[in-house]
Amino acid sequence: AQQPGTPLSDQEYQHFFTFLRSTIQESTACHLRELYGCKNSLVQRLDEYENHGVIPPGPICSDLPGNNFFHNFCTFSLYRCIMKKYFLKV
Length: 90
Known about the structure:
The chain is mainly alpha-helical. It has helices spanning 10-23, 26-36, 41-50, 73-83; strands at residues 60-61, 69-70. A two-stranded antiparallel sheet has the order 1-2.
């Protein structure tokens, strides 16, 4: 079992985004995030699912060249949506 708050494994990410593609689509999830922000219960559930039940507190660090710091997980997820880099992990 994974530690709460840790990112999904590569296989779990595949399953996560396969689930999104077959149900609400990545773009719809991103659109919900853009419209309602981090406080929306569906957005929070998706973020919790993606991190084994716990949304990591900020700041969030990544190995992105030129953009390696995000104030919180929602900002990081919004960045992934804008850049269409759905499998990007921290």
